Amino acid sequence: MTASTAGESRADQTAGRTEAATIDQWIARALRSRWIVRAPIPLFRAGLGWVFGGRLMLIEHIGRTSGEPRYVVVEVIERETNAIRVASGHGPKAQWFRNLSAHPAARLWVGRAKAVPAVARILPDEEAAAVLARYARVHPDAWEHLKAAMDELAGGDASVPVIEFTPPPR
After folding, report:
1. 3-state class (DSSP) for residue 48
2. What is the pTM of this model?
């Protein structure tokens, strides 16, 4: 490797990091924009959730102080038989996370399924870390940008709680 090749390589690496940082900042700004994050809600409620291919999910939950139905669209990070897991990218201070902490009953719209009853459980830190590690292995590029955007939103190393939804007990 010549000196000029090494210099170009470092310049390319620096440009790549700058581009990635710009993308991460753009994602963080988009996640702060209420109209962008709420735009999919009417599509789910109209029965068009299948458009998102099962990667996004609408959660209907109850407001902890108002008692009124509230809606949020989040990314599904892991799915098993009778369990769907999502992460709170805005951390434990997100309103929907706090609402589910207070009232774990929910209804889910995912794919072609509409208003499926479920119960939310906030995973302990160790379980959450394992789920996020599996997500990072399956979707490394998405995780890299989402984690950086979440860190940007948090102003440092973001705490990313994971919520598991299962069918209600009978």
Report:
1. coil
2. 0.77
